[in-house]
Design brief:
With 290 residues, the chain is mainly β. The strands form six sheets. Strands 13, 14, 17, 18, 19, 20, 21 and 23 form an eight-stranded antiparallel sheet that branches. It contains two helices and 25 strands.
């Protein structure tokens, strides 16, 4: 059984554009080897927006060398990028964008949500790419709710929505470059559950709401992320309150991480090249809205 090496907590919050009030749980500046293959996680909300005719969000900006994964729990997020990808996702849906060789994208509240207002909550995760894939072609996966399979957990402990990876023989729809598990867990109070976690892999679930007790007796609540040792297998959770957990696990990428702003590569030379390529337009442009 894995044990928690430490509990990661966010330190304060900030705005991304004018549409995403976020708290950063970790970033590639925080000893990235501890979280690999994941580079950053921003938790947006929970909050509430009033109706508006304005366009709330963040305008065009570039990325290179990794993937962004946006998971919506409440509200809507609309995306467009220079590869031609885009769409609007709502509660329970996912945008998985592969920046790789370079992409320009924008993210705003969906038009319908902006008009009506309401509760808003999302997570954006940055997933690293190995050196061999950092200059792959950009791509976009819009994963709607009906494509995400649900798995009942043993003993009536709740259910798991499988976004990436596999649980109990059920695979999620997201295509990944390295092995990982991204699951949306809904756990029921009064139950214990043992979840598979491979030896040697990073395992770092984020508690979005609720209250859990770990096998070593430590307790975690909303906004906290236990980061487990890579030694051992499996994780045991005792559910003290109904809980929503974003389960993150994956095979570490044992390569240098050199990041600056929206670019994450393996060397400083590659970062300088990324800036030059963006400034010269080689990462493409977003087509004008119809």
């Amino acid at each position: 059984m894995k044990t928690a090496s430490f509990i990661q907590r966010s330190e304060g919050g900030h705005w991304v554009g004018d549409g995403f009030p976020v708290r950063t749980l970790f970033s590639y500046n925080d000893r990235p080897e501890r979280f690999s293959p994941f580079l950053m996680l921003d938790h947006g909300g929970p909050t509430r927006f009033e109706p508006t005719a304005q366009r709330r969000g963040v305008g065009q900006h570039p990325h290179r060398g990794f993937e962004t994964v946006t998971i919506v729990f409440d509200g809507e997020v609309a995306h467009r990028d220079s590869s031609g990808g885009g769409g609007t996702i709502g509660p329970g849906e996912v945008q998985w964008m592969t920046a790789a060789a370079g992409i320009v994208h924008e993210e705003y509240h969906g038009e319908r949500f902006a008009r009506t207002g309401g509760p808003f909550e999302m997570v954006q995760l940055w997933v690293n790419l190995p050196a061999r894939d950092k200059m792959a072609a950009p791509a976009y996966q819009g994963i709607t709710r009906d494509r995400i399979p649900e798995v009942a957990l043993p003993g009536g402990a709740g259910l798991a929505r499988i976004i990436a990876g596999e649980l109990q023989g059920t695979a999620g729809p997201a295509r990944t470059f390295t092995p990982m598990q991204v699951w949306d867990l809904r756990l029921k109070a009064g139950h214990s559950v043992t979840l598979p976690a491979a030896a040697g892999h990073t395992t770092a679930p984020l508690v979005l709401r609720g209250h859990l007790r770990l096998a070593d007796g430590q307790e975690v609540t909303a906004g906290q992320m236990p980061v487990f040792s890579r030694e051992g297998e499996d994780v045991q959770l005792e559910v003290l309150e109904d809980s929503t957990v974003l389960w993150l696990a994956g095979e570490p990428i044992d390569e240098p991480v050199v990041g600056y702003g929206p670019f994450v590569m393996n060397t400083e030379t590659e970062i300088h090249q990324a800036f030059a390529d963006f400034q010269s337009g080689r990462m493409g442009r977003i087509a004008a809205a119809a």
